[in-house]
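Q: What does the assembled structure look like for these inputs?
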Amino acid sequence: MLDSLRVLRGAAEAYRTAATAAGLAWPDHAAAERPDLGGEPAPDLVHRLFAVDQVAEQLSWLQAQGWDSQRLFPNGGWLLPWPTDVGETLDKLSFTIGTPFPWRQQIPLFQFDLIVYTFVLAGEHEGEIWRYEASPDAWDSVRASTSLAALFTQWADGIAGGVVSYRELDQWLIVGAHVQDPFQELLERAVDLDPFAFPVSVPYPWWSRLRERQRECGVDLECIERGDECQLELLDAIAAARASLRG
Amino acid sequence: MRHRYLGKAVLAAAVVVSLVATGAWVNPSAAHADVAQPAPGGCAGMTVPEENHSSIRLRVDQPGSGAQVSVDEQGRIAVGGILHKQATMVDVSDEQVATADFTIGPRPDGVAAWAVSWSTGLRPPHLGDNQVCVRAKRDPKRTARILRSFTVVDLIPPSDVPGLTVGEVTSSGAVVSWGAATDNYGLAGYEVSVDGGSPHRTTVGTRSYTVTGLAPSTGHTVSVVAVDLAGNTSKTPATASFATAAPPPPPNANLTITPEEGGATAVWQPDPATDVSYRAFLDGQPIAEFPLDQYCQDANGNPASTCTTQDTISFIIEPLDEGTPYVFRVDALRADGTQSRSISGSFSTTTSASLVPADTRQMDASETSRCAAMGGDFYVASSSRAGVPIPGGSTQIFVGCYKAANDGCIRGFLPPSGNKVINCSDDVTTLLTTVAPPGHGPIISSMDVIPSAGVAKPAFAPSTLIEPITWCEEGACALLLAPAEEAVEVSVLASIAAAASTFLVVTAVGIGIGLVLSALLAILFPTEIGIGGVLEYPISPDTDFDTFDNWGADEGIWYNSLKLYAEVVKTTKELTGTYGLPFAWNDQSDSQLKVAVDEACTAQQSGNFPSGCGTNFAVYVPGGVNYRFRPMNQTGTHIVSAIAGNGGLPQPPGRSVWYYPARSLGGQAAISAGFQRNWFDSDSRFTPNACTGRAAGTTCDEFPFWSTNQAVNLSGLVADIKPVPTTESLPQASDISGFYSQCGVKDNERFIVLPVKPWVDAGGPSFGFRVSDGGASICMAPRP
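A:
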């Protein structure tokens, strides 16, 4: 779902306020919302990479805020800038199997070490945030949030609810600090929150829960079942896309 | 512990020196029958210094007989003369140095019309006494040979030392570094003096020196000169002045720090009335934050149930570098997060005691290089001079360096080639036999403690016995005679000193000479010491595996190891050809692969090193790109370094088990043990660490993999972690995923991770294969 820009700005600002109140140092150059930069168009490469004619203005607005390349998001996550390298960007989609939309119709948006969040660029899922962990056997394609604003709201609420806290050691916001299973912590301590919105691994004891959520989101569970085979097909498709873009 | 360390040092040196191995491995069983003889030179067999044919009339004008000749700016000497214009020059040789590159010029003044001049130049193999053999011919079948003796000197000093800097200044010392000097013939090293005191020698490859033992807040001047192989020193010393730092502040009464090699323990008194938590800093950087009771101990060192003023906080700071100064600070925080007090102190970690002081090793290496280059036969380390009887008639070139009156036999085998037993009788070999214990050489004597049955990893018991190793500089060789442990440690310097060292083993039956010590031992003692493994197997990357028929030798225990080895070599060669990769096997990479195979198979068999592999297992060979040719250079390099250091042996040795993990689906093994996926960020037992506070764009890479039974610390050792570019994390994960699926690695199934450093360095793709009863076959084939 695409948020209105007003809603997105409000949610993003609420997150920034909560994060800085928790102790996170927000860079000066990105300290305030910059609506004047909201109109910066997506580079041409984005259109070619993801085979889309238009890119939502919500994305352009976010990219104009100067929030990229610093660990401003939970578990040290950072906003990925507009793509500049075809190969690197497509690599980030190499675990996006079984999605209910074409694999290439999403742009990597947040990186949390081994977990990638993407923004769906077109179709009925446009505006949704999806997540994928680089893991040889998790196959955890699932929707993280129905929209960007909803994602920021979840994170801000996580801070307010104490499941996301600031840690001086690395100066990051941490999800479920000092607990063995942050996913379980989210389930049990933050019942109003959606645990899939938070960038923590879904450990194997919770895989049945994961499959249930995947089914709700329209994920092709047959593809998930085939796992590595399905990924092999995706890697071939990515290689073909890479070749065509370079050709 | 000490014995094990020496064993590693010897084995490492053996691998290093195998770089220059040119000869073939010698089958132990045939070794005694294969006694080699010196190779004849171009003037071999001459009984007079000149054999000239009247139709050639070869003449050598330069150098003159018995003359003293200086090497020029290029380290070369000129050789020239005349010959009949219908004749042709064949070659000019000086020991192993030969040239056939002649300039034929006009007839010199005052010479008859039949003559033309000839001239050439060469780099003499060493300074001091030399002989050139000059040969010419004229068809049909007429020859001339002249043997000319002369003395080579080097009168040109090395260049001045550039770029002298002083850094890492502490209250008691500093580290001095400098750039490389140059020399026309060759450098022996550098001499460092502090405040005009006695010089400390380093090897040519060692361009830094740590000054210690100075008083705090005092001024000092350090000077460095280069020393060449003739003993000339650079004209103007490089100098630099510095002042040591002020003495460290006296330790805070409430804080004691006990430094060790790789860490330190800080202990302080808690104040439970105000202290709720602590924030620890090292050199100003935060390293940990923890509550009052986390590290609170009672008087017996047990965790305190309730932390009181009678207890202490004991906080371990690690890992730290050895011999490095640090400042530790801890802030006590109240419940509201404000700071109640701050205590701090300085300390320096200790350094592990070396068996042989660095100064001694450097001096031995440098002076042996110089001895070789000045035509000496052997250099006796200062610590051994009282116990080495110098053969009568020997000439001292400089203190400790001698040329024997008769060295004709052993010189014929230097520089060394391959592993062989020589049967010499000259002054040098007599000396070696004299310093060896009856019936044994020093190394063999030390190895008598090894059980003779079965296959055992050599374990060296150092002794004070004299150990001979050869040391070669630009083709000129001398023997270093030093106590066993000193010689072994010096041999490890060989690679950085631009020299090649070779082991000599003296026994009652002869003298073994070789580059790989364990191969040499196998030749000399085929039944007394178990040596085996692929490392010593007669197979190489040049082997034609289609016709090779020695797979089942040694009762077949190496069969699967050889299949593994062959599959790696074949696959890398095929991929190199197909994709035009900048990769080729050489002696060093071959040795590293063989070590890796033996280590991996030993890990698989949980046996003594080396053990042969079993059958039916998958092998993952990481690359510099993944099997789909996507970048993973740093992650591939990390896998290699985590298991096998710089491509050599596992360090610490316990990491050898990392060659053979088992897949653990979904990281179940680690999760069941109570770890979470980002343990390196979240688990206070492992933080801070190399990944703490890493920059955006980097991801924490871990080895062993999370998806194995060796994740985190399940192997008994904490996994090696390193920040790598995030752009590599997904390709690397795809690689593992591809390996598990395409090679059919099931949950709980073990597999081998085989690090091949040069393959990663060359940007080769990862691949996987399976070894089975029927052979080996690729299961994860690279494709773009």
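The radius of gyration of chain A is 17 Å.
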